[in-house]
């Protein structure tokens, strides 16, 4: 079967991760996970691929685009099993992005029933929060919730 210790077949990876084989093939085409090919051209995955797949699935569940997942996974080593320090590093890198997403959701939850600074002037409170649509001069969109660069008004550090 040409399987080395610590490796999984695509079927085993699918069963263990709960992800369809077709999705695993897609993740591989997107360079989110890696496999080696046997002499018979069968895929073999390192066991640590389970963590990568789990991270991909969790990120998808909260709406993080696969391009962002790929960027964070690119910080992990390809030729060795990631260490705890490797995983801590990507966790720290993603902390600011997750905080930003949480802030957006909190703003939506807390401000959606009220005026969110969109400039629509359709709610009776808009005249109080944005008289004469003054926020229109600062640009399109919900200006009370965004910085000039389109980020949430709560600043967060970037990961390098």
Task: Give a description of the structure.
With 160 residues, the chain is mainly alpha-helical. The chain is built from six helices and three strands, in the order E-H-H-E-E-H-H-H-H. Strands 1-3-2 form a three-stranded antiparallel sheet. The chain is elongated and about 70 Å long.
Notable features of this structure?
3 strands; mainly alpha; three-stranded antiparallel beta sheet; 160 residues
Distance between the termini: 42 Å
Q: How are helices and strands ordered from N to C?
A: EHHEEHHHH
- Across the major sheet, the strand order is 1-3-2
Helix-strand category? mainly alpha
Low-confidence stretches: none
Mean pLDDT reading: 81
- How many individual helices? 6
How would a crystallographer describe the biggest sheet? 3 strands, antiparallel
Q: So what's the overall shape?
A: elongated
Strand content: 5-15%
- Tell me the number of strands: 3
User: Helicity level, as a percent range?
Assistant: 40-55%
Radius of gyration: 22 Å
Task: Please provide a brief summary of the model.
Helices cover 44% and strands 6% of the residues. The protein has 160 residues and is mostly helical.
């Amino acid at each position: 079967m040409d399987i080395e210790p610590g490796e999984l077949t695509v079927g085993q990876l699918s069963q263990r991760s709960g992800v369809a084989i077709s999705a695993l093939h897609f993740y591989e085409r997107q360079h989110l996970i890696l496999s080696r090919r046997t002499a018979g051209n069968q895929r073999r995955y390192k066991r640590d691929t389970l963590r990568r797949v789990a991270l991909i699935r969790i990120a998808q569940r909260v709406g993080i685009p696969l391009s962002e997942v790929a960027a964070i996974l690119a910080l992990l080593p390809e030729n060795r099993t990631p260490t705890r320090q490797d995983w801590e590093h990507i966790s720290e890198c993603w902390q600011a992005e997750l905080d930003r997403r949480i802030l957006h959701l909190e703003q939506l939850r807390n401000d959606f029933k009220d005026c969110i600074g969109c400039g629509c002037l359709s709610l009776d409170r808009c005249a109080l929060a944005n008289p004469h649509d003054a926020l229109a001069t600062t640009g399109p969109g919900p200006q009370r919730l965004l910085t000039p660069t389109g980020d949430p008004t709560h600043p967060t550090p970037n990961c390098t």
